[in-house]
Write a structure and sequence with these properties.
Largest sheet of chain A: 8 strands, mixed
Number of strands of chain A: 13
Structural class of chain A: alpha+beta
Oligomer: homodimer
Radius of gyration of chain A: 19 Å
Order of helices and strands of chain A: HEHHEEHEHHEEEEEHHHEEEE
Largest interface: A-B, 50 and 50 residues
Strand content of chain A: 15-25%
Chain lengths: 353, 353
């Protein structure tokens, strides 16, 4: 039996190798010293300085700074973009500050239902999980779907079964419990009874984290490694009080996440339905490839013209193969940061900084 | 109680009206007499004339012809593209010939797990369901997600709960039972024990429908109505023996389905993982919009160059707002057909017709 399993694993790995053949890089030796860059976000939304306590703001800035520094160390060690994106998203998932992994919001049934996706800009391989509840780090499940399955997207119990077979760390629902998030759920359920829209989520209600809009808070990362390869990843707990197995843009390749060495790597955050309908992440890539626009022009047009026209709130981070960065958003704020090879670093929250 | 329900329905419909505000058509009165066109597909794959019995071939051609004629009647009556796409996909779902609805294949656990999506090219609204097992017509569930929820995509038990609350027709698993599909599953499970790839599905094994590749068989439709509006829809039972809650391209807006009055309506069929990674449906639209290519150039480039380069097997149907049609595929065959306003009609199966 064990022999059969090992043979099967060998065949799977051969298949995976075939799947990951470089179809896309045109990579040469001289590119093995590409400048390395890492960009992360921790969600966009109604984040107002007037609602933010200084000690909370400091927590966010410190966390983003620490994650960027750790990610840059990995890039300098020669880790690939796919590895670094996975690792930094794990750090963000493990922090209760963000709506992903440990900080994930509660759905209507009072449990966490998380989504994540990852894409390799070199091979155009991708992996995603949707609606998982017992996986400590959904981004690592997405990575295993990409590396060790024939599929791109797995969902629900099936995705959890796959993660279990892959020996990924599973946790008890208690791991995700967070009193502030629970109060958010109770408030959201209360509001649902009297109104249909999602107004009044200004961060002042019910003891939720100041400045933390309970619709948003997705995390994401895009990276350029020394081999000149891009990768993008996104992870989220979705919307507080979400029902009916709702899937947002975060686990959808093309909508919430996209990477292609020939254009850019993109991770999105915002009101997912609008990002799906606008195929936002891929759209930035398409505008660059088909119209020869810069990453700044493409990303700005998608977020501040196309999304705005349909009232789609949110933002994205984007990085091209030369290390150019764009971080547009059309909300009051977006937790975001970038670090370059020389160690220079920017961490920002509000729209006026 | 009934009053409350009616009030809620009224509020939902007001909300839906607001959501469906025309953001995209630039429609004027003179366009209310657009030429109407309907295109459908019943899946692409290794469909060989040498494997096809004449009486089976006739069944497919008769069914596609009948669906096209019925759809054209609806368009001439003034039905919208969204309505017609939903209705003709229901007809294809109700037929055991195709891998959707009644003809859906069995997953690894021996049940049907179906996906569908629908997009309105006028409003850019969209709806989708993934992994549903007891809904007679998944395309109608996708329609209700679009019309009666704030969401684009619902999955699994949650999507079934939503369908139930929306009074959609639910059926017993027996409804989907089909001996030929069951034999396909048994064969696929047997093959999995000895091989990892999907070769040998040439339609001759185990009594499966001649010429019916068990990986493929998705159905789809794209329509142009007299108001000049496009819509696209796709429905599938996925892959025989699929595991782990695998989600393919069919329920993913941008990958399997996309519609936009400013470019085109697209429905895809094929090896879903490659269609997701290539964001195929939206890519056709992007090439038209950003490079001013014709629908034939854009669709052909995506299917016969981009997909082929990554060994992605399959095809698509596409229709622009002037009524131009493209139906490229890179497999041996694709069940497909188009009908124009004057009643002229084409139904084709193989690659050499």
């Amino acid at each position: 039996m064990k022999t059969i399993t090992l043979t099967a694993l060998f065949l799977i790995s051969m298949f995976t190798m075939d799947k990951t053949l470089n179809v896309n890089s045109g990579q040469t030796d001289k590119e093995f010293n590409s400048p390395v860059v890492l960009v992360i976000h921790g969600g966009a939304g109604t984040i107002l300085k007037s609602n933010m306590r200084p000690e909370i703001e400091k927590k966010y800035r410190d966390m983003l700074t620490s994650v960027l520094n750790q990610g840059m160390e990995l890039l300098k060690e020669g880790k690939t973009s796919v590895d670094v994106v996975e690792q930094v998203i794990r750090m963000l998932e493990d922090s209760p500050l963000f709506n992903a992994g440990k900080g994930a919001v509660f759905n209507h049934e009072g449990k966490q239902e998380m989504d994540a996706s990852l894409m390799d800009g070199k091979s155009l391989n991708a992996g995603a999980v949707a609606g998982v509840s017992n996986i400590k780090n959904p981004i690592s499940a997405a990575r295993l779907v990409m590396d060790n399955s024939e599929h791109v997207m797995l969902s629900g119990k099936g995705a959890e079964q796959f993660a279990k077979e892959q020996k990924l760390e599973l946790v008890d629902p208690d791991y995700f419990y967070n009193e502030k998030r629970y109060i958010q759920l109770k408030n959201a359920i209360k509001r649902d009874n009297i109104q249909l829209d999602h107004d009044g989520e200004d961060g002042k209600q019910g003891g939720i984290l100041p400045g933390q809009d309970d619709k948003f808070g997705t995390v994401g990362a895009v990276s350029l490694d020394k081999y000149g390869n891009l990768a993008a990843g996104t992870s989220t707990g979705g919307m507080t009080n979400k029902k009916y197995g709702r899937v947002g843009d975060s686990p959808l390749i093309g909508a919430g996440t996209y990477a292609n060495n020939n254009s850019c790597a993109v991770s999105c955050t915002g009101h997912g339905e609008f990002f799906i309908r606008s195929v936002v992440a891929y759209d930035v890539s398409a505008i660059m490839q088909y119209q020869n626009k810069s990453i700044k022009e493409a990303a700005d047009y998608v977020v501040n013209t196309k999304l705005k026209n349909i009232k789609g709130a949110g933002g994205l981070i984007a990085l091209d193969a030369k290390g150019n960065v764009a971080m547009p958003f059309n909300t009051k704020g977006m937790y975001r940061g970038v670090i370059y090879q020389d160690g220079s670093l920017e961490v920002k929250i509000y729209d006026d900084e």
